[in-house]
Write a structure and sequence with these properties.
Elements lengths: L9 H32 L6 H29 L2 H22 L9 H33 L3 H33 L1 H20 L39 H14 L1 H31 L4 H29 L1 H20 L4 H28 L6 H30 L5 E3 L2 E3 L1 H23 L22
Length: 465
């Protein structure tokens, strides 16, 4: 009998395959739009950077404003139907954009083209805010056990990293050799593949949505044990009422608040690196703009290695130790990276740095799952990820301001080491991540703790919008 690739389970494998194809399609789509706007639609125009930033801003707006409320609906709806519906909608939007792209550029004013692109990106990313928490909830039901959940999260991280290694190099040849429409069509087809993969998986919807998946061990997540009574039916209330109930559940769980704090601090560090790394490579490391692309590849390969190692690390030392040790190692490596002065050393450190970074991100997933009851999964995810995205955006803005003028003529020599604005900010980000590791060691103890008070239930029949 011919051996078949199985990741965790046959159902999970099919779900993963569809999502892997879709993620590659998204990477090609995003890169193609940025390239097309920059090199065709706004070619030679002084406002070209602003036009490109509009594509990124449209995606960010969806995450920040649609994401939090999307979780309420995901908790109400059938998760499989939600995932299928989002893939149909996203595939239809991209297919329509593909049809419009057959028109010559001069057929419509540039402002109309840009509006069409921004609206498409906004709707696609808004729809994705429903898909992500629904998939999170499905994986929670499909995969049990801390080690297997970490494995699933690691596979997802490795898949995403691989997609962003494969996708962008595909985008440019597709755009400049066969045209924009074929790059867009590839993404539309990827949604079809994802749809078929989800259809092939039987995902039973739990009978009692408010019941916790199990009585969790206090060592996993003490607060999850304080779930509302299993099996009690609850009359559906208003959107804002249920959203506030999700926020209350989150705020009353010290464990979830600690996880969010760690993720936010980590994103503050990564936001600074993402913004300033191009200047660090071309300035401090004396590299060229072309060589900067290799640093993205190094992060990608390191991320794959870290994601694949995370499951084994969680199995050996647990998700909590993997998280706080990963933060300490990541912060230390980021500080060491900030002191380098040549491209080769920088590349090696960037590759090494990505391994514990991805491992700790992966280890946080089973902790988040264990700390969240089935009733609140959509809302918890819809709060957690937008908040981390916001912290990354704030860090990017703050580090850009500090490097661009907030630290004018900054230059200090300490213990024989010379500091400039760019490397000082990156070094400070490393220290911040190390501090997060120390906090994680305290906030995520390895011993059992007393459970937190139960979350306030939403009053049955309470009026809402």
């Amino acid at each position: 009998m011919r051996a078949r690739l199985v990741l965790i389970s046959p159902s999970y494998t099919r779900l993963w395959l569809g999502q892997a194809v879709s993620t590659v399609g998204d990477a090609v789509f995003s890169t193609t739009l940025v390239l097309w706007v920059a090199t065709v639609l706004a070619k030679g125009e002084p406002w070209a950077p602003q036009a490109v930033s509009g594509v990124l801003l449209a995606g960010g707006v969806a995450v920040m404003f649609v994401g939090p409320l999307a979780g309420v609906f995901v908790d109400r709806w059938n998760k499989r139907a939600t995932m299928l519906g989002t893939e149909v909608l996203r595939g239809t939007i991209v297919a329509m954009l593909t049809a419009v792209s057959l028109l010559p550029v001069h057929a419509m004013p540039v402002a109309v083209w840009l509006t069409l692109i921004y609206v498409s990106v906004l709707v696609l990313n808004s729809t994705g805010q429903f898909f992500t928490p629904a998939r999170f909830a499905v994986i929670a039901d499909m995969v049990s056990g801390e080690a297997d959940r970490a494995r699933a999260a690691g596979i997802a991280q490795a898949t995403a990293q691989t997609a962003w290694i494969i996708g962008p190099p595909l985008a440019a040849p597709l755009l400049f050799t066969v045209g924009l429409e074929w790059a867009l069509l590839l993404n539309a087809v990827s949604y079809l593949v994802s749809y078929l993969a989800i259809r092939s998986v039987d995902i039973p919807e739990p009978a009692a949505a408010s019941a916790p998946e199990r009585e969790p061990r206090a060592a996993d997540a003490p607060e999850a044990a304080a779930a509302p009574e299993a099996g009690k039916s609850r009359k559906r209330t208003g959107l804002l009422t249920e959203f506030r109930a999700g926020l209350s559940f989150f705020a009353r769980s010290r464990f979830l608040v600690a996880l969010l704090a760690l993720a936010v601090i980590g994103q503050l560090g990564m936001g600074a690196l993402s913004t300033l790394n191009v200047f660090f490579v071309t300035g401090n490391l004396h590299g060229s703009a072309e060589q900067f692309g290799y640093f993205g590849m190094a992060m990608g390969f390191g991320g794959i290695a870290g994601a694949l190692c995370a499951g084994r690390a969680v199995k050996l030392i647990g998700a909590r130790r993997t998280t706080w040790i990963g933060l300490l190692v990541t912060g230390t490596l980021l500080f060491v990276y900030s002191r380098q002065d040549n491209v080769v050393a920088g590349l090696l450190l960037m590759l090494t740095f990505a391994i514990p970074l991805t491992a700790l991100n992966t280890a946080m997933s089973p902790l988040l799952l264990a700390a969240t009851t089935r009733e609140f999964r959509g809302r918890v995810v819809a709060v957690f990820y937008p908040m981390t995205r916001l912290s990354s955006l704030l860090a990017a803005a703050l580090s850009g301001w500090l490097a661009g003028g907030g630290l004018p003529h900054f230059g200090r020599t300490v213990a024989g080491m010379h500091f400039t604005p760019v490397d000082t900010i990156i070094a400070g980000a490393g220290v911040l991540v190390v501090a997060a590791g120390v906090y994680a060691r305290i906030a995520l103890p390895d011993t059992e703790a007393a459970p937190a008070p139960a979350p306030e239930p939403v009053p049955a029949g309470q009026a809402g919008p």
